[in-house]
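Reviewers of the previous submission asked for a worked example of the structure-prediction workflow described in the proposal, so we include one complete record here. The input consisted solely of the amino acid sequence. No template or homolog information was supplied to the procedure at any stage.
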Amino acid sequence: MVIGLPGNALVLWSCAATRRRGIPMLLVFHLALADVATLLTGPVYIRFLSTGRWDLGLAACRGCNYICAAAMYASVFLIALLGLHRCLVVSRPSAAVVAGDRAAQLAHGAAAVTWLVALILATPSIAFRHVEDGHCKRKHSSTAWLVTHNLLETGLGWALPLTAVAAGYGLLLQRLRRTRLARRGRTLGLVAAVVVAFAVTWGPYHIASLLEVVAKLQKGNGPLNRVARAIRPPATALAFLSSALNPLLYACAGRGLCHTAGTSFLPRLLEGSTVFHSSLKVDVKMLVSSCLLCSSFVLACATIFFGFHVHKLDCAQFQVLGSDHPITATVGGDAVLPCHLSPRMNAEHMEVRWFRSRFSIYVHLYQSGQDHFSSQMPEYQGRTEFLKGGVSNGNVSLRILRTRLSDEGQYQCLIKDGNFYEEATLELKVAVSGSSPLLSVEDYQDGGIRVGCRAAGWYPKPEMLWRDFQGQQLPSFTESTSQDKNGFFQVEKTIIIHKNSKQNLSCSVQNTRLPQEKDSSIYISDAIFPEVSPWMVTFFAILAVCLALLIFLPLIFYRLQAKHTTELEKRSAEIRERDMEIQKHAAELRKFNPCSSPPS
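From that input alone, the workflow returned the following structure tokens.
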């Protein structure tokens, strides 16, 4: 703070006093703003370190961490833009030359977008910060949130931007080697030093985040978790110091210009090498000495903080060990969650906190030699017992009375001694054996008999099997599973059996978590199966013939009658035709014999 605030204030004043500001000047201006924002939170953390407690409330806890996270994202994005701009200037000088007003617009637009993105990406720092037990802590509701938050912070806040800058510098060095260009501007080396300083100072912090992710995925019980926690405090302090390094780098890189340019050395340093001139050669010794000075400063601070923290860990270091396999309990019974210290030591004056998803609302709290129930979860009130018999030997196990289905899940056993704490994760599984299987003969189906088997009140879902008298498993015809309002399972299976095959049946139900099995048997007699009588066959055959006759005889009669009617009509028509011919011949005969008269 003593170096960073005045140094960054000088950078801001120098940039603001410059009339014509190019892209590097404006990016450095916003970079200094981010550093100042981080350094302004310093007094708050100094107060916390001096008192050992966070007494400024939740708003200050979340606000300070949000400012630091936003400044981190803004800094790395601005440094990446600055580095890529330098690469563009060196590789394509003609394409990088931009008019003053346009350059200012581009720089301001890029800075505005950078700050907007940084403010959005920093929002998890608000959601995952809580004040608990006098400390401002990062607390995630689940492992998935912790992994997502840490990977997002490390990827977008460190790895990806610096990788892009490193790739740009690598391509630039290849181009310079091919063109054998020996003249380079100071700005290129200065920006490279800024990038390296940011990568070095923030590297341990993000490495600790990655170690925390791996440790959490491994249930948090391994030595990796202790390493991550040991690295986190000094790495955070080292990252905080990065805000004070940039003014030192500017001063070291531009010390040759301070005598000639005065307070305007920074604009000349940043803008003087946009186009290469013979007067602006690389001062290799100057840049090397600057990097060595900053590296020495960083290493000295890191050594002090790591040494202090390691000494603190040596004073109070232990492991918290739980069960490496799930604990199984029956509904209504008692469950003991084992947890102990390693090496074995007296835990009577330590804080032992059993909790589930939320740290503040606990399952059971043992503190200062007494049990505390003020913030105990309502569903555990009157159902927990801290086993004090082994506390002096490091045993801090917890008994849960009258276990319920809702008790199933993960539990955290956290032990705290002063400012040092460790925790272990345990898993409790609940099981219950329900009713014995009930067998029933349901109906005739597909030439056989359908038999059903039902069992209710089981948890978790049981395994139901049909077997014959030899113990061979039989395939089911249908299967159904349901769950009642209390969470217990009811399973039903049916099977179809035929005469003289598998008439001795047994149905067994087994709990997948408990070595318990219940079964029932049934014998299906031959008399139950339907018998087919020969007389019945004859009767049904005659009945079928009669039905066929009743159906087909009327049809045949109708067809014969229709045929007979057609023939009669045909003959009647022929008779009428003959009568007409006879009458015609009679009329002709009367013409030849007029004396004849028609008969009366």
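Confidence is low (pLDDT under 50) at residues 181-185, 273-316. We consider this example representative of the routine output the project will generate in years two and three.
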